[in-house]
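Wait, mind explaining this?

_____
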Amino acid sequence: MMRLNPEPLISPERIAARVGEMAAQIRADYAGRRPLLLCVLKGAAFFTADLARALAMDTDLEFVRARSYVGTRSGGEVSLSRMDDLKITGRHVLLIEDIVDTGRTLSRLCGRLRDCEPASLALVTLLDKPGRREVSMRADYTGFEIGNQFVVGYGLDYEEQYRQLPGVYLLEED
């Protein structure tokens, strides 16, 4: 059975401050351009919304769905949807993800996006778990690096629960 640790691993205040810092860096890096924010659903929805507001620049917003988690484990199969409607050729794409874990899901997604010939493709993630990486991959913009822990909140879920929590929390086995 899984139990939510009531103390946040990352508080809402720390998240807000870091999102602001990341937005300032992205705004500087993309000055004079209109990037396409590509949100990976469902987990990155909260992060994307906050980042888009903090960017305070002209952007476009699209959504893609990529799934590989079954319960608390990153599964081997990667499922992508909403890819066919994307028009990213020649665009500066910021792929926004909630967490980079094994890297398999994002590797597959990035491969599909590169096939569409964007002008540039950068990965923005709230959380990074480098200790779990199975595929060589590095985010261009990272909010927080965490250990091999299962986390929920601020968009991250466990069986569709806990997304609404304002911070990031540990989910622990009893």
